[in-house]
Amino acid sequence: MNEESPHIPPQPGAKQMARRFRGFLPVVVDVETGGFHNSTDALLEVAAVLIDMDDNGVLSRGTTHSFHVIPFEGSRLDPASLAVTGIDPFHPLRPAIPERDALQRIFREVRHAVRAYNCRRAILVGHNAAFDLGFLNAAVTRTEIKRNPFHPFSCFDTVSLAGAALGQTVLAKAAAVAGIPWDSSSAHSASYDAERTADVFCYVSNRLTAMYREAETKARELGWHEAAPPAEPQNEDQPQSIV
User: Fold this and answer.
1) pTM of the shown model
2) What is the CATH number of the domain that holds 145?
3) Which of 57, 86, 108 has the alpha carbon at shortest distance from 211?
4) Catalytic residues, which ones?
5) Could you give phi then psi for residue 221, rounded to 5 degrees?
6) Are the C-beta atoms of residues 212 and 200 closer than 8 Å to each other?
7) Residues spanned by the domain of 112
8) Is residue 162 part of a domain?
9) What is the residue-level pLDDT of the chain in tens, covering all 243 positions?
10) For the chain, what is the domain count?
11) Is residue 183 assigned to a domain?
12) Rounded to whole angstroms, how far apart are CA atoms 137 and 115?
C-alpha cells in the first residue's frame, strides 16, 4: 500500500458530512501572493484547513496544512502587496518550498480527508474565494499537477455567508460579531486567515442546521432520496456539477 492510497478510516460524522454538502467536502484555503494577477504574480503562502464533523452534525475547524512557497521563475512581486502581507520572499530564514511540492502535500491531505468523509470531491471555502481559487488553479496549471482534489470552479465564499448571516463582509468584523477571537498582528498570514475563515464558516453553517434539516426533510418528501449522498470518488480531472 503506497503513500497515496493508505487505508483511511471513516470519520465519525462521515455519513452526515457526505449528505450535508451533496458529497462535497468543504476545505478552507487561503493564499498570500505577490499581487492580484494569478497568471503572473507569485504564490508566496498557501494554507488549507480541513473541516470536521461529529456524529451530531456539528462542524468544527480541523487540521491546518500550511507552507511558505518559493516564487516561481519570472513571477511578479508587487511591492504594495508585500507591504500588506509583510512577507520577504527571499529572507534567508524563510522555510519556503517550490509551489509544486506545497500543492502536492496539501492535496494529499485533502484527498485523505475526502475519502475519510466518503465524499466525492473537495470544494474550496475562502474569504473572497474566487481570488484563492484563481491562484490555486493557476498554480495547478503552471506546475502540471494532474490530481487536483478541488472542484475547478465552484466554491463557498464566506464573504457572502457572513454578509447574509452576520451583516459583515470584512473577515475581522465577521469574526468579532460571531465572538471569534481576532489578532490583527497575525492577519495576512495564510494559516491564520484560513483558520479564522474556517471558524466563521463553521459558525454560520452550524447556526443554519435547523434550516438545513427542514430542507432535507422537504427534499425527502419530494422524492429526492439520492440528492445528497455521494457517489464513489471519481476522476478528479472531470468537473462535477454542484448545481
Assistant:
1) 0.90
2) 3.30.420.10
3) 57
4) 188
5) -65, -30
6) no
7) 20-221
8) yes
9) 455 556 677 777 888 998 999 999 999 999 999 999 999 999 999 999 999 999 999 999 999 999 999 999 999 999 999 999 999 999 999 999 999 999 999 999 999 999 999 999 999 999 999 999 999 999 999 999 999 999 999 999 999 999 999 999 999 999 999 999 999 999 999 999 999 999 999 999 999 999 999 999 998 899 886 544 444 444 555 555 554
10) 1
11) yes
12) 22
